[in-house]
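Quick one:
INPUT:
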């Protein structure tokens, strides 16, 4: 037997994979800090109840859930949103507004593993609480763009598709759909891109035939791709709710234009998002070539904090996934090369020279330099070969002869030049040689 395998959809991160993932996290963290978001963390195991009737049927069906030894029904978190709502809700009164938080963590969904979809995956979540105005959407969409542009991706590589669930509901209401029918239509729209007309099957099963003229109007609305088209489509309806939504749309698109980000954003009412809690703007990030699953998704969810038992607190946020982001970076040749080289390799003459070498190695490491040496006694000549193989910039040579003179030899491994320096000067010499690296 080949030993135990990891579970389907769960990955191991060998050092090279780990460093690629770290690179992704580093860019996300940098972006979040630049936008003034504060980092938090939360438990991976939560009460099952937190996701019931909140995240939506699809996520509920994918939960990794079980009963723990204390007879509690628990689930591995499939997403961060209900948890961060609970955290912010519990302290809402004490937190300075606007509350801008981010986190990076692992999430678990029992999905059919496929390209870009796993059962354990990492997300970066960013959310703003306490801001009812569309300024929060501008801030978050701009952050999402930076979270991808930070890798060197451009508007030719990805786009943010912006839509609006409230707008859909108000529009469907104006077309005389009741609430249950409207929800069913939105489910169909969510699936329309993949399934075409088949997507309306569950609507007709639940609510009877969908009149041709109504279906045509739904499909026409779904195909809207610009603010001008949207304004024209809403013209015939003298609805205050629809006009207010249109004003918000202008605010978001003009705000992003002022930031120079228009080319990253497209109006796309075909996006409605599968999660149950979204109330207003929703958005997803996609690779332009379109052969990957969504890179990121988010939107406004003004009712969720209240729904889980806290104050009425408006919220907007998004999550970006590390799996699809990593695939896109690979496709575009933007994955950094894996460098695992020490700064310094210490070549040690023998047992007698170890004490002096160890003292310096330890001091250099404490100062933050990455120093390696052969753990066991290795022939002197072989150590030089090892030193070059590691990719180190400098070799420090602790030979018996040199130590007797109170010096250490420093070899620059890039040009093989060597010089002797008094042991007391090792630290300063290394600093000068490596500064600016
Ligand atoms: P979501 O659309 O379910 O939204 O997930 C966001 C992103 O996480 C996806 O676009 C995808 O990149 C990644 N993702 C989701 N499931 C998987 C999977 N099985 N394997 C790999 N990657 C995956 C949410 O989770 C919302 N809670 C986002 C949010 C935050 N809304 C408001 N605040």
């Amino acid at each position: 037997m080949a030993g135990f395998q990891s579970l389907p959809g769960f990955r191991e991160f060998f050092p090279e994979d780990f460093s690629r993932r770290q690179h992704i996290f580093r860019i996300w963290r940098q972006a979040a800090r630049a936008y003034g978001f504060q980092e938090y963390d939360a438990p991976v195991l939560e009460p099952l109840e937190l996701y019931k009737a909140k995240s939506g049927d699809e996520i509920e069906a994918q939960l990794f859930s079980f009963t723990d030894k204390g007879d509690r029904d628990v689930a591995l978190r499939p997403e961060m949103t209900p948890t961060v709502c609970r955290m912010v809700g519990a302290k809402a009164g004490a937190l300075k507004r606007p509350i801008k938080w981010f986190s990076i963590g692992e999430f678990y969904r029992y999905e059919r593993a496929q390209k870009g979809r796993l059962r354990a995956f990492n997300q970066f979540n960013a959310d703003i609480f306490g801001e009812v105005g569309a300024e929060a959407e501008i801030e978050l969409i701009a952050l999402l763009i930076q979270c991808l542009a930070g890798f060197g991706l451009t508007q030719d590589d990805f786009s943010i598709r912006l839509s609006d669930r409230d707008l859909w509901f108000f529009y469907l209401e104006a077309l005389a759909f009741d609430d249950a029918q409207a929800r069913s239509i939105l489910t169909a729209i969510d699936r329309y891109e993949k399934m075409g007309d088949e997507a309306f099957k569950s609507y007709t099963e639940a609510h009877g035939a969908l009149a041709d003229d109504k279906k045509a109007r739904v499909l026409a609305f779904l195909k809207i791709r610009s603010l001008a088209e949207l304004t024209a489509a809403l013209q015939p309806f003298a609805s205050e709710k629809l006009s207010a939504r249109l004003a918000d749309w202008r605010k978001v698109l003009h705000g992003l234009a002022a930031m120079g980000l228009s080319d990253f954003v497209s109006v796309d009412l075909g996006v409605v998002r599968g999660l149950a809690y979204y109330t207003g703007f929703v958005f997803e990030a996609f690779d332009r070539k379109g052969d990957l699953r969504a890179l990121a998704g988010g939107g406004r969810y003004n009712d969720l904090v209240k729904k889980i038992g806290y104050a009425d607190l408006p919220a907007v946020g998004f999550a970006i996934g590390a799996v699809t982001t990593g695939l896109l970076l690979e496709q575009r040749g933007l994955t950094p090369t894996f460098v695992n080289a020490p700064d310094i390799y210490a070549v040690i003459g023998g047992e007698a020279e170890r004490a002096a070498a160890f003292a310096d190695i330890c001091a250099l490491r404490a100062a933050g330099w990455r120093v390696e040496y052969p753990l066991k006694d290795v022939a002197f000549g072989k150590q030089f070969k090892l030193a070059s193989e590691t990719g180190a910039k400098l070799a420090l040579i602790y030979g018996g002869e040199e130590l007797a003179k109170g010096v250490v030899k420093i070899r620059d491994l890039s040009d093989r030049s060597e010089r002797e320096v008094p042991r007391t000067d090792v630290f300063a010499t290394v600093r000068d040689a490596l500064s600016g690296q």
